[in-house]
Amino acid sequence: MTSPPAPRDGPQARAASTQAGAGDSRAEAGALVGWLGGSFDPVHEGHLYIAQAAADRFGLARVVLVPARAPPHKLDKTLAPGADRLALLELACADDPRLQPSDLELLREGPSFSVDTAEQLLAALPVGTRLLAVVGADTLADLPNWHRIGELAQRVTFCAVTRPGTPLETEPLLQALGAGAVAAIREHLLELPPHPASSTAVRAALAAGRDPEHVSPAVLAELRRRGLYPSQAGGAASSDTSGSKRL
Q1: Which residue has the higher pLDDT, 8 or 196?
Q2: Quick one: which of 34, 65, 81, 144 has the fewest CB in 10 Å?
Q3: Number of domains making up the chain
Q4: Residue 27: its pLDDT value, please?
Q5: Please, where are the H alpha helices in the chain?
Q6: Does 112 reside within a domain?
């Protein structure tokens, strides 16, 4: 297991260098650190809603938000450049010190497999730190198909985001994840009313020349400045929502 690549200079690199750093006093041995991954194409208030709710519910000192370079389930989709998605994410998270963007997957070649990211995050955190991997409840059924899911289930605790009062079906996961991991999922449910934000809707609004809903003024200004998702490009490039399919 190796540590994350040495950070580059500049604001983006400074953010990445501290997000999973063993020297960060907010990460102590035995602590529970949240982890929310996805395309963030682009980030919107729904992503922050989930990350902040997880931090509140489980008393997390931080939640690491990791944009994917090449999501395994979206290898045929074209995403906005990783540097743009990370810069927007940094702006969106600037007002909550618990939310910490990381460029771990953007720096890594090949498909952005969650098991590899878990290894890198844990290597940079104090021994004994536990990772709470926040995923949409609809993702659980697909977990048996994830790359090296057995190893991933040993490294993280999955936190399923679900609607209040919605039954969670975990029995099909027993063989792939094991009884311990399934029990942990049931202990770490995050029941939330659904958020209306959608990356697809944000891109569609920009493509139509309208101001999108559910993005902060700072993120909108940067989207405009960077000229992302222009109408001539057809707007939507992928289909990421606040219930992100993949870490």
Answers
A1: 196
A2: 81
A3: 1
A4: 61
A5: 11-19, 45-58, 82-93, 114-124, 149-155, 174-177, 179-187, 199-207, 217-226
A6: yes
